[in-house]
Amino acid sequence: MIVKRDLDLKNYRLCRGQYLTDQSKLNGLEKSKKLLNDLKQALLKACYDIDDNYLRCTVDSVPDRLKACIKAKGFNFEHQLK
Fold first, then answer.
1. What is the 3-state secondary structure (H, E, C) of 14-82?
2. Which Gene3D superfamilies match (predicted)?
3. CA angle, 27 as apex, 24 and 33 as ends, to 5°?
């Protein structure tokens, strides 16, 4: 899992009269792009790692869950499932 400290991001607040240099902005943008790319890769890996049988069971349970939800008028219905 990628966390803020892995990217060496710092918390800071600019005081009146201070400004970010163009280089600082570029560094922040590059780190953000790296983070976004790493998150995309992690998400894709997680999707590929999901077991097909687990997905099949999940999809197959949707009709029964919808019926239970309608019967419970949108309230808690988990206890009504088999």
1. CCCCCCCCHHHHHHHHHHHHHHHHHHHHHHHHHHHHCCHHHHHHHHHHHHHHHHHHHHCCCCCCHHHCC
2. Ribonuclease H-like superfamily/Ribonuclease H (3.30.420.10)
3. 140
Tokens of 39: 């998150």
Q: Which residue has the tokens 């400004």?
A: 19
pTM of the complete model beyond 0.85: no
User: For residue range 30-57, what is the model confidence (pLDDT) as tens digits?
Assistant: 888 988 999 999 999 999 999 999 999 9
Judge contact between 31 and 7, C-beta under 8 A.
yes
Exposure string over 36-63, b if 16+ CB within 10 A, otherwise e: eeeeeeeeeeeeeeeeeeeeeeeeeeee
Under DSSP, is residue 6 helix (H, G, I), strand (E, B) or coil?
helix
- Give the rounded percent of residues in the chain with a pLDDT score beyond 90: 37
